[in-house]
Amino acid sequence: MKILLVDDSSTMRRIQKNTLGTLGFTDVDEAEDGQDAVSKVGKTTYDLVLMDWNMPNMTGIDALKAIRANPATAKVPVIMVTSESEKTRILEAIQAGATNYIVKPFTPDVLKEKLDALH
Amino acid sequence: MRSELINPFLKATMSTFQTMVNTTPQPSAPYVKAEPSLSHDVSGIIGLSGGAKGAVIISFPTKTALSTVSSFIGLNVTQIDADVTDAVGELANIIAGAAKADLAGLNVTISLPSVVVGTNHKVTTPKDIPSIVIPFACTHGEFVVEVCIAVVEQK
Question: Within an 8 Å CB–CB cutoff, is residue B116 touching chain A?
Answer without folding.
Answer: no
